């Protein structure tokens, strides 16, 4: 169950629950990849290519989990659905 951010607030940003789930899922995967690559870069002598990574968008998150972080970014209006692309 999602307590924060509120589903009602999130649905003000996205037109349906399905779209919200898809957007949050995609962004959570991007966050996971960024955090994993950053950890590898910080703890390895070998260079890590982070050019394709999408960095974190907020300075502070209430959640430590990537899905919660994605929902916070959506609520803040920093992550939206791009209607121009099919991906």
From TrEMBL:
Catalytic activity entry: RNA(n) + a ribonucleoside 5'-triphosphate = RNA(n+1) + diphosphate
GO terms, biological process: DNA-templated transcription
SMART domains: RNA_pol_Rpb6
GO MF terms, alphabetically ordered: DNA binding; DNA-directed RNA polymerase activity
Pfam families: RNA_pol_Rpb6
PANTHER family (UniProt xref): DNA-DIRECTED RNA POLYMERASE SUBUNIT OMEGA
Summary of subunit composition and partner proteins: The RNAP catalytic core consists of 2 alpha, 1 beta, 1 beta' and 1 omega subunit. When a sigma factor is associated with the core the holoenzyme is formed, which can initiate transcription.
UniProt protein name: DNA-directed RNA polymerase subunit omega
Gene, per the UniProt record: rpoZ
């Amino acid at each position: 169950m999602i307590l924060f951010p509120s589903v009602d607030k999130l649905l003000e940003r996205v037109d349906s629950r399905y779209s919200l789930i898809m957007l949050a899922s995609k962004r959570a995967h991007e966050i996971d990849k960024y955090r994993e690559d950053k950890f590898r870069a910080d703890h390895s002598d070998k260079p890590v290519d982070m050019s394709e990574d999408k960095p974190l968008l907020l300075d502070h998150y209430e959640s430590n989990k990537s899905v919660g972080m994605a929902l916070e970014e959506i609520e803040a209006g920093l992550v939206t659905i791009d209607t121009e692309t099919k991906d």
